[in-house]
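Quick one, T. Sequence first:
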Amino acid sequence: MKSNQLYNSKRRLFLKKVIKLIFIVISFSFISSVLAFLKPKNPKKKPYRFFEISNDKIPKEGVKKIDILIDEEKTMKIFLVKHNNSLIALSPVCTHLGCFVNFDRNINEFVCPCHGGRYNIEGKVIKGPPQKNLQRFPIKIENNKILVGIKI
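Structure tokens:
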């Protein structure tokens, strides 16, 4: 009789563990599918939306920080750089941890106040910790208007 009770007890314990394992697998599957559904789409696949830049916002030489009107309530800051007769549009967001960089006219560099990352006037890393250059936005000219592309 005792061996029969021991057998039943082991069987119950085994069944409890199997049911628990099945529940964990189902829960994990459900949670991962919900998270996959909620995850934002890849912003790299979004198309560029082009915004007109008025001539008074374009620097004659050097760097100018400007606001771009995205919609009625939302603006976005970018840097426009006129360097070697070319115009460059750069993101003000440091590629290390997302702090906003400032342009230091004394040393002619973008400097991140958070961890001391530095970029040259073209947005290329010259001192770490950032590993990537500042993001460049495409610029195009249509009908004598300068347009800057931003993924929104």
